[in-house]
């Protein structure tokens, strides 16, 4: 990932550390060759993503066809996850999207936007949104409604 992505994520993780156990696990993209197709790559990436989550995790797939909601709604979801003691695993697909296995495993599908974002930017945006949601929960002036 470019340095700006790593720096952006690190900045928000630093702000989150006291309030949310947030970690980012990067799964390498499947190797693309002349003989590989997007289905094969998506399957390899899905297998690796699913291997990285725990069996009891509440899994959410980021998917353009998923549900869009506000940052306030995200804050409410975080409160719900905390009250239920659930660990959230958020799956972000590679350039070919998430495989059917990941979509099937997911309890929910969320969409950041109908727009298409580059995957490095999604990492920064989602980390910032978790920080903003925690700010809402804490009543911090970072979020102004």
Task: Describe the protein in words.
The chain is of the alpha/beta class. It has a single domain, classed as SPOUT methyltransferase, trefoil knot domain (Alpha/beta knot), CATH 3.40.1280.10. About 45% of the residues lie in helices and about 10% in strands. Helix 3 packs across helix 5. The chain is globular. The model has no long low-confidence stretch (mean pLDDT about 90).
Series of H and E elements: HHEHEHEH
Strand arrangement within the widest β-sheet reads 2-1-3
Mean pLDDT: 89
Q: What's the helix count? A: 5
Query: In percent, how much strand structure appears in the residues?
Result: 5-15%
Poorly predicted runs of 5 or more residues = none
Q: How many separate domains make up the residues? A: 1
Under CATH, the homologous superfamily reads SPOUT methyltransferase, trefoil knot domain
DSSP, total strands: 3
Shape: globular
Q: What is the CATH topology classification name?
A: Alpha/beta knot
């Amino acid at each position: 990932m470019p340095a700006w992505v790593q720096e952006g994520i690190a900045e928000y993780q630093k702000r989150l550390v006291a309030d949310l156990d947030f970690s980012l696990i990067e799964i390498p993209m499947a190797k693309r060759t002349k003989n590989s197709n997007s289905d094969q790559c998506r399957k390899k990436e899905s297998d690796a993503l699913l291997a990285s989550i725990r069996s009891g995790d509440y899994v959410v797939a980021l998917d353009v066809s998923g549900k869009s909601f506000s940052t306030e709604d995200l804050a409410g979801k975080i409160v719900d996850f905390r009250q239920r003691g659930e660990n959230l695993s958020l799956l972000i697909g590679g350039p070919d999207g998430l495989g059917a296995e990941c979509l099937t495993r997911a309890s929910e599908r969320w969409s950041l936007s109908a727009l298409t974002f580059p995957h490095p930017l999604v990492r920064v945006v989602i980390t910032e949104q978790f920080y903003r949601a925690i700010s809402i929960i804490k009543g911090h002036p970072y979020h102004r409604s």
